[in-house]
Amino acid sequence: MVQSANSKVVLPGGNLVYGSLAQNPRGEESSPEDYWTVDAIRGHSFYRVLSSRSPVANTLNLDDAKSLQDLALAQDMTRGVILDSIFRQADRLGNISIDELQHYVTTEGEVKWDDKVSDKDKADAVSPIQSLKRIIYKDNDDGMNWGRNSISVSPILADTHHIDQTVYNRLQWLAGLMQDSEAGSAAKIKDYFVNVVHISGENYDQMRSSLINEAASLKSRLDSKDIQLDVDFEGTMKKLYAKEIEAAQAKNANTTPSPSPNNVTSAPSPQN
């Protein structure tokens, strides 16, 4: 890797070539290789959450906020591996980063996160601001390699015995629609991908087959109790601060002013 901040190189003959030559040009604190090779993934503490056959609640103390980091990365990792497996993404290393994001629970009981929090965000937070690493996936131009039976991190999916309910449910739902679970749904889904997403009909057929197979595989593993749907980062964070949410909502209810008599809408008059 060239360690230079200069974005151009002069080749013999005077031709200029432009591109990023800086080592770690985005200034990312973690290298993608730390999170997207099989050996590296197996070396992380969140891997034991995924690979254990015991319920997540037996592996992590979900009553402790310290569990949130492993839970967040476990959820991010499984979602990425499943999607890349479906779309046969071959070059994820160039399209992934590890970002430190700020997480908090609002008075409405919503989990929010961003790279920065404003004073208003802090005022809305009923939980401490949790600074957690998250895996950020980016557009990948090296997908749909249908000739590949697996991708580099496919073994991680085989190792995994825990995924989240949301991804599982949505995969089953979409796989069903692709197979006419609703009248005419298969044709509508294909029309959307071909005419709105703009992938070829042949690519759609390959992707459809891959998604249906992945959904069926996960369902089979769930039915045989090889996987559990108990990776729930947002739900765990809400439960951790349930008392704070309840107290904040009760306080808001007590301080909300009642409408003055002049602002009360009168009942409509009976109609003859």
Task: Give a structural overview.
With 272 residues, the chain is mainly α. Helices cover 44% and strands 10% of the residues. It contains 11 helices and 5 strands. The chain has helices at 38-42, 45-51, 56-59, 67-87, 119-124, 154-159, 165-177, 185-197, 201-223, 233-240, 242-255, and strands at 8-10, 16-18, 96-105, 111-114, 130-137. The strands form 2 sheets. The chain has a 3-stranded antiparallel β-sheet. The protein has a two-stranded antiparallel ribbon with strand order 1-2. It is globular and about 60 Å long.
> Which class best fits the helix and strand makeup?
mainly alpha
Question: Judging from the principal axes of the Cα atoms, what is the shape?
Answer: globular
Mean of pLDDT: 82
- Pick out the low-confidence regions: 1-11, 14-30, 264-272
| Spatial order of the strands forming the largest sheet | 4-3-5
Number of strands: 5
What summary fits the major beta sheet? 3 strands, antiparallel
The fraction of residues assigned to DSSP E strands is 5-15%
What is the number of helical segments per DSSP (H or I, 4+ residues)? 11
Report the radius of gyration as a whole number of Å. 24 Å
Provide the number of structural domains.
1
